[in-house]
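Ticket reopened. Same input as before:
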Amino acid sequence: MRILHLYHDILNLYGDYANVEAIKRLAQANEVSCTVDKISLGEDADFSQYDFIFMGSSTEKNQKVALEDFRRFSDQLKNYVDSGKVALFTGNAFEILGKTIKDNTKVHNGLGLLDFDVVEGDRVSEDIIVKADDLSLPLVGYRNKRGVISSVESPLFEVLYQNSQKDIIKTEGVRYKNLFCTHLIGPVLVKNPHFLLYISELILNKELSDDSLKYNQLSYEVTFNELNKRANLSDDIKS
Amino acid sequence: MNRIKVIFSIIAAKLTHFVGKFVGKGTSKPGQIALKILPDVLNYIKLPKTIIAVTGSNGKSSTVNMIYHLLENNGLSIACNNKGSNQLEGVTTTVLTNATLSGKLKHDVLLIECDERYTKFIFKYIKPTYCVVTNLYRDQLTRNGHAEEVFDVIREHIPSSTHLVLNTDDILVSLLSEKTEKASWYGISAPNTQTRVGNVYNDAVLCPSCKSKMTLEGNDYSCDSCGFHRHDPDCAVTSLSLKDKKITIDGQYDISLMTGSLFSFYNTLAAFTVSKLLNFDSEKTASLLSNYELENGRLTRFCVNNREGTLLIAKHENSTAYNQCFQLVTSSEGSCDVMIVVDQISRKYFTGDTSWLWDIDFNLLCDKNVNQLILAGKYVNDLIVRLSFSDFPQEKISHFEDINSAIESMDNEAQEPVFVITCFSDQMKVLNNPCVKKVK
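Engineering reply: fixed in the latest deploy. New output:
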């Protein structure tokens, strides 16, 4: 398996790099060899050589820097995604894939690969529980962002619980083919081993063992239970 | 009309404060009540000529306490919020309870610790003569968003008349000088000293001013594009030893410290810089700061099953604080056991977010002097997973969800000292264990 980690140094605000490490570790535990290439500003890459592409969260300013640099990869990313290959964007990374990002000074043109606009407003900072149709268990996570996206046709998740009063929404992120976009920040795959397994199996197109994920599972359960003390979700949600 | 309200709010604050002392209530309440009566009450108080503010992610209270010590020993009277809240309410409490009924603060100096984000409210009413900014790190990101956002708040609200006292080794802090006419700089210029601790992330990749790539060489930074660069410090640590807990400032003032960490070196240096600006005798300052023991509970000594223990406060959600604690542990003499407790992430709000664990450089613990690493608390599984991605020898790790079980697991026969690293929110869960005896 070959992984491409984009802007590893400037888009890595909330420990997002851990997602790449987690996939690599799971692959290796299943005897699949895995290499990770990291590229940043001005560096080149051939996306067709990779099985998984990752981009993480950043400050609003660094996001704009990455946006400008990433324009040259726009066609490559489109071809990569259209071919059905897997990519994950965490935090505000995926905002650059939309049509525009409006901040308090100007409107930045996005790459236009996805059909939404972003408006930066007050910061949203919250624990959140979300659910995807393809996954039996909900996901736990954290959102820490200014960008609010306009409604999208194919959201990634349904929101079950959020513990702030801002940006109250029913859906979260975007899914387009196997491009997974979420505002959840940081080590999303570490904290949600079922999502890690799902993504990894999708990349490798085979069943994997989750024997190496015992403590990830315990960590998930503790966090889910903590959040659920506040969310009071019905029992059938976790079946 | 306002005159009456001013007197009324001063009386209200003083009364609440007086009552509060007996019922053990917080230091926010008096200010809160006064602000209800008159929201801009601080505008009506005649403040001393010298006002010193200290803000930043880490080291605020230590720096304030050291400055207090220096002011006091130079014969000045001080009004200070060092015993209470560092938000607008706490500052208001300090000012009003120290004021005369005619609305005058008769002390020589007003010294205030300011929460970084609350500078927005505090500086609206109080224009500091000097403002020390210690550092702007990744700190409580669930509350703060990120350091650039905190920077924006401080930059917007710092009065242009204020003389800034800036840590030149912190790129964001350094950039604040653009806002004011006067600035002094302090930093560590000791040879062979890495001032950025931890290798997991680097927030100095891009120039904070123009966002071009920065040139980083050792502790030096410069931007070829806009010219932003590390200022030569006006006051510098010119040599240091973590192990011996010693620094030399400006090549001639030796200071011995109680703790050997970069944090304590920087805080001491910041206080020294302020004393220079106040024209205090530097010899005297050095001797006052030598072996000065801070009483802010960041370091508690205890005894567990006849073993020596030290509890270090590394704030949760603050990777730099953890990294510096690790540095302190591994620079200590002989071997030791280390226990890390993450049970409740904040005492002020709820979150289950543990992404900050991935910013901590646990490889700093990979030192032969760490015999055993004990992980404990509700989020122990997150710690186990995180450590499994570090180079720390896994066979040296044991873990317990229950903190008491973790403490009781400690080998009674062993002689090595124990370091417990945790946060305010979890420290009492350790110190209240029956096997743990606090020592003075």
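Residues 2-238 of chain A form a domain with the Rossmann fold fold (CATH 3.40.50.880). The longest strand of chain A covers residues 117-131. Please confirm and we'll close it.
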